């Protein structure tokens, strides 16, 4: 079973599924007023607008290419929909979608509480999931429901800073469904969940998750660096991008998406988004666009398109292999002659236990295609390393961060020594200056692992002046 985020036509397909199940299982218990209210709520135009303006996120549960169930969650942490096809009920699919929604809300919206308005027949199931009643049965517009809630632990933000540095262990990532929700739950797991459930007669699709919060206007106007859910912006969303008035080229989005048609024991899902540039000279444009695509596709290439013999053997050794990569990006600096792009990659590298979140950055000269790394733009001397380490620990709010390395080793890491893939040096330019940091991939047994996926230390441009190299990079930045 694959649970992932839905877009476009997929959302419409999910709403058809929701309506079919509602008509069979729920509508007979509602008044005509309730049926009409629900039908209006799940109109595609309504859901699409809420996705676009309010952050409602829709997920689907797939077995191969067949949609088995669907769910939706609001940035507030309120579950708006969760339905499973009638013939597939009682197989644990509803529970899997529920956990996916909760994980996504914790990871992406950083909520501390999940809420749902459940039909009376589904209350026991939700209690089993860990939710508790917060009020007695209510009736609105002909729909009966009982409100429930459950407290969860969100991804922890750095206090007094707008970004989240993704404290993600393997167990959290398996639950979190990471924006696309490339989480694979196998038949064996589904069967185990079903056999352990105390509510044997519960029908997954029989719940009404009509979101009464949606009846109230939901403001999308964040304040003080917060999004519309009242939570701080995080990750790529928190970066204040710079766009020059003199940038006379276009940035367009491309994507690579692949889910195989067959239903073998190997779970494969790739959804990779990346920018492409139009309006440069042909030779430079080709070089720039190939660089951007290669960076975005790095994991897909490693796992699937050009795997090493070692990777092939690793996949073959797994009972239930998982190859997954979701890549999202943000153009953080769009200058006349300089482009800076962040890529955030969530995935599984062969198995459910080998999950990761990685940051990769491209900083490229739009005049000749030159790519810049950390070692190209700053002198990696003792003074810089000291300031950088202070910034990293301040951002992470963790005094032990990188304590496993001495100063010389930190210089080597920032110069590109990955220490067998444990560290990847990165920097990006944004409206506030330059952030320099690392993406982490500690081994499971490493005592140095504090749980961070990536951390970057922010510098204003004048703070880096004492450490600037003579690289052409500095001539490309606009004041």
TrEMBL record:
Keywords: Membrane, Transmembrane, Transmembrane helix. The chain crosses the membrane at residues 164-186. Residues 1-155 form the N-acetyltransferase domain. It comes from the Bacteria. It holds the Pfam family PdaC. This is N-acetyltransferase domain-containing protein. It comes from Claveliimonas bilis. The lineage of its organism: Bacteria, Bacillati, Bacillota, Clostridia, Lachnospirales.
């Amino acid at each position: 079973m694959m649970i992932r985020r839905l877009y476009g036509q997929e959302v419409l397909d999910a709403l058809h599924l929701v309506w079919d199940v509602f008509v069979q299982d729920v509508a007979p218990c509602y008044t005509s007023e309730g049926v009409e209210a629900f039908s209006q709520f799940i109109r595609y135009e309504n859901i699409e607008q809420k996705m676009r303006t309010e952050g409602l996120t829709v997920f689907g549960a797939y077995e191969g290419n067949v949609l088995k169930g669907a769910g939706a969650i609001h940035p507030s942490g309120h579950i708006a929909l969760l339905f499973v096809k009638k013939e597939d009920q009682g197989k644990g699919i509803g529970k899997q979608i529920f956990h996916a929604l909760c994980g996504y809300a914790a990871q992406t919206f950083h909520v501390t509480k999940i809420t749902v308005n459940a039909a009376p027949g589904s209350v026991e199931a939700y209690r089993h999931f860990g939710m508790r009643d917060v009020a007695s049965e209510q009736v609105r517009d002909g729909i009966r429901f009982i409100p429930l809630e459950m407290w969860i632990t969100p991804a922890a933000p750095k206090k007094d800073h707008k970004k989240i540095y993704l404290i993600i262990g393997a167990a959290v990532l398996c639950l979190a469904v990471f924006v696309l929700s490339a989480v694979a739950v196998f038949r064996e797991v589904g069967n185990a969940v079903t056999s352990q459930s105390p509510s044997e007669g519960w029908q997954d699709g029989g719940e009404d998750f009509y979101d009464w919060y949606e009846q109230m206007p939901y403001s999308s106007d964040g304040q003080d660096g917060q999004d519309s859910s009242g939570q701080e912006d995080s990750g790529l969303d928190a970066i204040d991008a710079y766009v020059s008035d003199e940038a006379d080229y276009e940035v367009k989005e491309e994507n690579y998406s692949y889910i195989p048609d067959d239903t073998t024991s190997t779970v494969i899902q790739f959804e990779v988004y990346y920018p492409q540039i139009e309006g440069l000279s042909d030779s430079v444009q080709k070089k720039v666009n190939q660089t951007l695509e290669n960076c975005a596709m790095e994991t897909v290439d490693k796992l699937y398109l050009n795997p090493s013999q070692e990777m092939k053997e690793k996949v073959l050794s797994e009972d239930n292999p998982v190859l997954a990569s979701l890549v999202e990006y943000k153009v953080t600096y769009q200058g006349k002659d300089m482009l800076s792009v962040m890529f955030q990659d969530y995935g599984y590298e062969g198995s459910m236990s080998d999950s990761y979140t990685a940051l990769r950055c491209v900083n490229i000269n739009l005049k000749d295609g030159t790519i810049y790394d950390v070692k190209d733009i700053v002198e990696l001397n003792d003074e810089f390393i000291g300031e950088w380490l202070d910034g990293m620990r301040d951002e992470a709010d963790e005094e032990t961060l990188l304590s496993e390395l001495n100063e010389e080793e930190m210089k080597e890491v920032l110069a590109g020594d990955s220490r067998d893939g444990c560290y990847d040096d990165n920097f990006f330019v944004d409206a506030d200056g330059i952030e320099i940091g690392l993406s982490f991939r500690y081994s499971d047994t490493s005592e140095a692992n504090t749980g961070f996926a990536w951390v970057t230390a922010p510098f204003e441009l004048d703070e880096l002046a004492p450490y600037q190299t003579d690289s052409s990079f500095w001539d490309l930045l606009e004041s």
